[in-house]
């Protein structure tokens, strides 16, 4: 009985039920409070946390998917750009080769036309020289003929008298008559 009375006596030391206070015994209160708080958080926050994590997971997956699509598009554009570059390089090489061929062709054409022009100039020069020679020869012939004619006329005039002159004229007229 002593134990029962002791328990009533010890009840006298307990605080009243209507009062509120803090229990400063760290070892007795903190693990219990933490367990209660964690239990409430897990029970009520599990859905919210799960939704947040699912939303975050979906955003990450969407970002990865978009990144993969952008990467695929970038790779496709890169391949197109490389193909265009190869095409442009081939065209540039073709233009370069054709340009060199065209330059060589034009150079040969220019050389050939220059040779033809030089040949024509040489021919013109030779023709001019020949023409000038013929002109000089004809002029000398005319002068020689003129001098010979003057000499012959001078000789004839000094040797010819009127009677011989009339006979020569008659003979020439007769020759003209027979020619007709």
UniProtKB/TrEMBL annotation:
<feature type="transmembrane region" description="Helical">
    <location>
        <begin position="32"/>
        <end position="49"/>
    </location>
</feature>
<dbReference type="GO" id="GO:0046933">
    <property type="term" value="F:proton-transporting ATP synthase activity, rotational mechanism"/>
</dbReference>
<dbReference type="GO" id="GO:0009535">
    <property type="term" value="C:chloroplast thylakoid membrane"/>
</dbReference>
<keyword id="KW-0150">Chloroplast</keyword>
<comment type="function">
    <text>F(1)F(0) ATP synthase produces ATP from ADP in the presence of a proton or sodium gradient. F-type ATPases consist of two structural domains, F(1) containing the extramembraneous catalytic core and F(0) containing the membrane proton channel, linked together by a central stalk and a peripheral stalk. During catalysis, ATP synthesis in the catalytic domain of F(1) is coupled via a rotary mechanism of the central stalk subunits to proton translocation.</text>
</comment>
<keyword id="KW-0138">CF(0)</keyword>
<keyword id="KW-0406">Ion transport</keyword>
<keyword id="KW-0934">Plastid</keyword>
<comment type="similarity">
    <text>Belongs to the ATPase B chain family.</text>
</comment>
<keyword id="KW-0472">Membrane</keyword>
<dbReference type="InterPro" id="IPR002146">
    <property type="entry name" value="ATP_synth_b/b'su_bac/chlpt"/>
</dbReference>
<keyword id="KW-0813">Transport</keyword>
<keyword id="KW-0175">Coiled coil</keyword>
<keyword id="KW-0812">Transmembrane</keyword>
<keyword id="KW-0375">Hydrogen ion transport</keyword>
<comment type="function">
    <text>Component of the F(0) channel, it forms part of the peripheral stalk, linking F(1) to F(0).</text>
</comment>
<protein>
    <recommendedName>
        <fullName>ATP synthase subunit b, chloroplastic</fullName>
    </recommendedName>
</protein>
<comment type="subunit">
    <text>F-type ATPases have 2 components, F(1) - the catalytic core - and F(0) - the membrane proton channel. F(1) has five subunits: alpha(3), beta(3), gamma(1), delta(1), epsilon(1). F(0) has four main subunits: a(1), b(1), b'(1) and c(10-14). The alpha and beta chains form an alternating ring which encloses part of the gamma chain. F(1) is attached to F(0) by a central stalk formed by the gamma and epsilon chains, while a peripheral stalk is formed by the delta, b and b' chains.</text>
</comment>
<dbReference type="Pfam" id="PF00430">
    <property type="entry name" value="ATP-synt_B"/>
</dbReference>
<dbReference type="GO" id="GO:0045259">
    <property type="term" value="C:proton-transporting ATP synthase complex"/>
</dbReference>
<keyword id="KW-1133">Transmembrane helix</keyword>
<keyword id="KW-0066">ATP synthesis</keyword>
<keyword id="KW-0793">Thylakoid</keyword>
<feature type="coiled-coil region">
    <location>
        <begin position="71"/>
        <end position="98"/>
    </location>
</feature>
């Amino acid at each position: 009985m002593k134990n029962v009375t002791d328990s009533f006596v010890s009840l006298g030391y307990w605080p009243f039920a209507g009062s509120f206070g803090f229990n400063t015994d760290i070892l007795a209160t903190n693990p219990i409070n933490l367990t209660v708080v964690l239990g409430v958080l897990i029970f009520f926050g599990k859905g919210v946390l799960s939704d947040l994590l699912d939303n975050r997971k979906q955003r990450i997956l969407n970002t990865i998917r978009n990144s993969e699509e952008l990467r695929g598009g970038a790779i496709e554009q890169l391949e197109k750009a490389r193909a265009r570059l190869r095409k442009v390089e081939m065209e540039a090489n073709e233009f370069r080769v054709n340009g060199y061929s065209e330059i060589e062709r034009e150079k040969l054409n220019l050389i050939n036309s220059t040779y033809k022009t030089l040949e024509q100039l040489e021919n013109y020069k030779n023709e001019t020289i020949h023409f000038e020679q013929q002109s000089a020869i004809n002029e000398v012939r005319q002068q020689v003929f003129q001098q010979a004619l003057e000499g012959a006329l001078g000789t004839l005039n000094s040797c010819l008298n009127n009677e011989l002159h009339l006979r020569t004229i008659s003979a020439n007229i007769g020759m003209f008559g027979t020619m007709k």
